[in-house]
Structures are given as C-alpha cells and as structure tokens.
Specification:
The chain has helices at about 15-30, 80-95, 115-125, 155-160, 200-205, 215-230, 260-265, 330-350, 360-375, 380-385, 390-400, 400-405; strands at about 10-15, 45-50, 100-105, 130-135, 170, 180-185, 185-190, 235-240, 270-275, 280-290, 290-295, 305-315, 315-325, 415-420. It has two domains: about 15-330 and about 415-420, Purple Acid Phosphatase, chain A, domain 2 (4-Layer Sandwich), CATH 3.60.21.10; about 330-405. It contains twelve helices and 14 strands. With about 425 residues, it is of the alpha/beta class.
C-alpha cells in the first residue's frame, strides 16, 4: 500500500511578485500584444487557485514495480514518482489553503478506471480547498489502457469525479463535460471539456486533438453573456491549448477552429485561459478585435521542474506564478537528469557525423536547454547561450527546426504573469 503520509512535499519557490512587473515590461519589448501590468499592492485577494495539469497517474495496482512505470513513457516524465508528486500537491494545498485546486486534464495515464479511482483517493485528502477537474485526451474512452484495465465513459467520469465539479456546478453543457463554476460573487470559472475522446471507439483510435462544438459554443456564450451583465470576471480552463505556443506543437495541441473561440472571448472581454496538454510551460497571447487574450499553458506535474501554478485574483487584475513540488531532497535534480537523459540519445545521431569530436557535448547542450524550455525558464536559456557560444553555432548549422527554436525564445520567464483585467 502507498504511504503518502511519509512523503512531505517541499516547495522550491520561484521568484514571484517582486519580479512580475519587471518581467512584463520586458515582454513588451518582444513584440507581443500588450495589456497593462498589474501590481496588487495592498489589494485584497478575492479568489485564489492552485492549478495543476497532466498528472498522468498510473495505478500502482496495474504496475506494481516503480521502475517498470518508466517503460511506459519516453517523453521525459518522471512517471515512477507519480503518486509522490500528487501527494506533494495535496500536502502543499493543505498547507497553503487556496480556495481552489484546478486540474486541467490528463488526470490518468491512459484512461484506466483504476488510475482514476486511485487519483480520487489522493484528492479526497484535500481538506479546506475545493477541487475542480476537467478531462484531457487521455482520460476517456481510451483504447490503449495499461494492463487491459477498463477505461471510463463520459458518464462514468462524471460519477467518479462527482465531488470535483460534476455534482454541484452552476451550469453544465449538454454536449460535453464542460461546466461553469461560481468561484465567488465576482468570478466565474469556465471549465471546458475540449476533448474528442467520445469518438475514440467509433474511430478505433485515441484522438489527441481538441475542439469546442457548436452546441458547447452556444452554451459558453450564454454563460459569458450572463457573467458580463453582472460585472463578473470569467477565467477559462481547458486541457488543449487555446492558441499556438510553438510551431512544432500546433496540430493536435491547439484546439481546432480556435479562432471562433477567440472571437467569442474577445466579444465578451474574456482575457485569461489556462491549458495544459503540451507538458511545456509557456505563456502566449493574441490580440483579437482589440482585446488581448492570454493562454497560460502549464507544464505537466511529471515534467521537470514538476510545478504547480498559483493564481490570485483581485478586483483590478490577477497575479500568477509557479512553485515546484519536491517530494524528497534532491528530487528536482533527479527530475532534470531524467528529462535530459531520456531525450539525450535522440539528438546524438543528428550531430555524430558532422562533429565526431563534439557530438556528445552538443547533444547534452541541446537537451539541457530543452529541459529549461519545458520548464519555461527562458532567462536561464539565455545564460546558457552566453556560456556556450561555440556549441550554439554547431546547433545553428545542423540542428532541426525545433532545436533551433529553443535558442530564439525571448529573455522572459514563462512562470509569472500579472495583468489588469
């Protein structure tokens, strides 16, 4: 049996509110559409939410050996510590007592019923915080469950997570697992199911992409129209990305026909969305009909540096930052080494022939930088570029498009944000 009480999370805190305004000023020099930076000063926080995504819990009942879990993933996730990381989130939430913990999909590894049930057992330990969840593309009607375990249908998902948004929300969509939650008198959380998983059996494949149907679109507009009439702020959450974040992560990542949702949000001045799915920490924004809309893509809990987002909402704006979950001393380094190690070999062959004396060093440089990219630590990438100018030239000559993109990011952290509404 798992002994979560013996594992206490320790938070490795990022630089937060003191540097938010500086970071935003730097963003404006990078050609992004701008809305005004926000400084809460002595303002009272009206709603606080911790935001987690892509927990990908794989039931210990299905895979009993910790190291065997690593066989099931090749993308750098530190899967063998999935329970410890989710336990760490619960410990952090119980210590800090935010109003909400929001998990934006891919709750389970591959939609296993037992993985969902095991996650609920852990979430049941949350004491003074309301937990809200939505599904990701891995969670429903999955035809590739581990160990042949049964998957879950949308109806079963609602039953399993009845206490986590699916029994007492203010409104539910008839065509998806989307719902609207009254976070406070002045704030609505729009919890959007962007998955197409209900068509998996019909298509005989797991559909990774996301979409908002016409029926759901109309339901969203009804929610937004009422919220605006009452002067309420609306924050939306979905698993898939609302807009493009990376040229290599568009198809299957950004929701199909996202321009319609963006135009709808602009119509009602909805400016903040949170997503996941890519496992990459990135903040993207677009100006749509004069309205700046922001999509914060949170990195996976299981990907270096294993982070949890924090959102504080005020009457005049909001502040967002991230903290790392560290179940035991030295965990963050172990997570970094795992992420780099898994991806290192993928880069070796690309540079072996061109630079037989340097290829190992170049590959390590690229994938250490890739870890920082997934973590959203762009300033550290720039430091790495300064310290390794010769290696950077090798990558610029022989790297693929994605490798080169790693070194063109703005010198701005993707782990903090502070804006006016």
């Amino acid at each position: 049996m798992r002994k979560s009480k013996k594992t206490k999370s320790k938070m490795r805190r990022t630089a937060v509110m003191l540097t938010c305004v500086l970071a935003l000023a730097m963003m404006s020099s990078c050609g992004r559409a701008r809305s005004k930076a926000y400084n809460p000063q002595n303002a009272e926080c009206s709603v606080s939410a911790y935001i987690c995504t892509d927990t990908h819990l794989l039931s210990n009942n299905l895979v009993t050996d910790r190291d065997e879990k690593m066989v099931y993933t090749t993308d750098g996730r530190i899967q063998k510590y999935d329970y410890e990381l989710v336990d760490g989130v619960v410990d952090t939430v119980n210590a800090d007592k935010p109003d909400y913990l929001v998990i934006t999909g891919d709750l389970s590894f591959n939609g296993e019923r037992d993985s969902h049930l095991e996650l609920v057992k852990i979430l049941d330990k949350v004491t003074d915080t309301k937990v809200l969840v939505i599904p990701g593309n891995h969670d429903l009607c999955n035809i590739s469950t581990v160990a042949g375990d049964a998957t879950v249908t949308p109806e079963e998902f609602k039953e399993i997570y009845a206490d986590y948004g699916y029994s007492d929300a203010m409104s539910y969509d008839s065509d998806s697992l989307s719902y609207a939650w009254k976070a406070s008198e002045d704030t609505i959380f729009l919890m959007l199911d962007s998955t197409l998983s209900k068509f998996n059996f019909e298509e005989n494949r797991n559909i990774t992409g996301g979409f908002i149907s016409g029926i759901t679109y109309d339901w969203i507009e009804g929610i937004l129209k009422e919220a605006v009439s009452k002067g309420q702020h609306v924050v939306s959450f979905m698993h898939h990305n609302l807009m493009d974040h990376n040229s290599s992560f568009v198809a299957g990542y950004t929701i199909i026909k996202n321009e319609y949702v963006l135009e709808l949000f602009a119509k009602y001045n909805i400016t903040l969305n949170f997503s996941g799915h890519m496992h990459i920490q990135n903040i993207s924004e677009e100006e749509v009909n004069g309205v700046t809309i922001i999509d914060v893509a949170n990195s996976s809990l299981l990907a270096y540096s294993d982070t949890l987002g924090r959102l504080k909402i005020y009457d005049g704006g909001y502040v967002y930052d991230k903290i790392s979950i560290e179940p035991f001393e030295g965990f963050t380094k172990a997570s970094f080494d795992n992420f780099v190690g898994v991806n290192y070999n993928k880069s070796l062959e690309r540079y072996r022939k061109a630079y037989p004396d340097k290829y190992e060093e170049i590959a390590a440089f690229v994938y250490e930088t890739n870890a920082l990219y997934f973590d959203g630590d762009y300033p550290q990438i720039h430091e790495k570029m300064k310290m390794n100018r010769k290696l950077l030239k090798y990558v610029e000559k022989n790297g693929n498009g994605y490798n080169k993109d790693l070194f063109t990011v703005p010198n701005v952290s993707q782990k903090m944000l502070a804006r006016e509404w």
